[in-house]
Amino acid sequence: MKKCIVIPTYWGNIDGREEIVFDHPTPLKSEGTLRRLLVNLSKFNSIRRGDIKVIIIGVANKNAYQEEVEEFLNTYLDEFRTNMDIALYSYTWFDALKRYLLQNGIEDVSLIEPQGYSQVRNLCLLAALENKVDYAIFLDDDELIITNDFFEKVEEGILKKAPDNGTIYGKVGYYLEDKKTAKFYELKWWPKDELLSSAISKLIHSSNRYVASIVGLGGLMILTRELMKNVCFDPNVPRGEDIDYIFNARMLGYRIYFDKELFIKHLPPKIKTPEWQKARQDIIRFLYERDKYDSHLEVEELQKVAFEELLPYPGTFMQDDLEERILEYSKAISIKYLADGDLSGFYECMENAKISFSYTPNINAAMEYLSKNCIWTKITSVKKFRE
Q: What is the pTM assigned to this prediction?
């Protein structure tokens, strides 16, 4: 089967003036983690032979950096062009793509404006589809492949029947990484990492290799052409777009399977976006995802997902006590900022605490996503993306 690797990479400075919030964008003109991954990939024969194309999706966290990021990455990738089939898809490609879609009668291109994780992931899908692959391997730039048979494991099971008799249109694996220590202000009200780890651990210890799952990590996601053409990432989700995508696929009739023999090493950089900023995105995300789940139960065209399948994660943050969790967590983390003498961070946490009070539930969230996905299938039906 024809395949490619797609790696989104985010560049810019974390200085409080970011226009697009990414977890840990690479500072401009630094080496970052991308080079480490590309050196790692170049050790595989299938990469050196050009059997697997490597696609880099390059984006900036400020609009003013767009041209600079694209020029820098073009030079950055030069050393790898002789030992792999590698291509940069950045703003020149994005702009040409939007013009092409407009010429083909598609005026709404909001799904692929590179203004957030979900839109960038949609660009990743289109880059893979443009290359006429049977499936794409999605990695993040802060990872390393540590097993010699990684690409063999990736392909195993694809488009085959799983133990539950479903077709494996997509797979996810898991990260090997240093265990995160729970922070005191997260333990009771916001134990995200612990709940996610618990969900993944349960999948790893399941009796079957392939288990249909709502949990998945975007940095190790294998998606077939069928899935990429018919399911898009939801631009209303600012974080956790990977798990949300799996839920979207389920609503649209596709199961994505956890493969307990598929894993990668995750080595994130130490400099990251402030915690209050990521918390704000999570708050917005969980409020919206709760609305989308509740409203999908009323949409006849969508398949229904039992809430129990979302537990312990992300379902714990989609229940009736979400507003209380938001308030108590915001208060707890604000005290941490206050103790550190960071008054700006303290005030931002107080702003986070106010979000649920001003939030208006979206009772049409699932139908709105379905409408966006209809636009997506129109996009993926144009000549450029057809088989």
A: 0.96
